[in-house]
């Protein structure tokens, strides 16, 4: 898995390319989320998983750990446009009820805006 990130409007935007399997390079995603929160006080994150075609239980654990970390800090994590196979896994595991799943980056930024987040 390869990921790219940027910060827009105090939101960490991460784009994942490749399978999310919990391999050592995948753990860097968790480290990125932790470091952005601690170093830059970022508590909102959008993860674009449209190019992640497969996710296993360890990959799901990484997403859950990021979600837990940010929610414990008063923030939120949303997922952007999961591929059909990843969507199926989210439904089977019922994580689609835990994560807000949005269509694109613009929807994610809107959902994570301070005004929207305050009402969650």
From TrEMBL:
This is Anti-sigma B factor antagonist. GO terms for molecular function: anti-sigma factor antagonist activity. PROSITE patterns: STAS. CDD domains: STAS_anti-anti-sigma_factors (cd07043). It comes from the Bacteria. Pfam families: STAS. Residues 1-112 form the STAS domain.
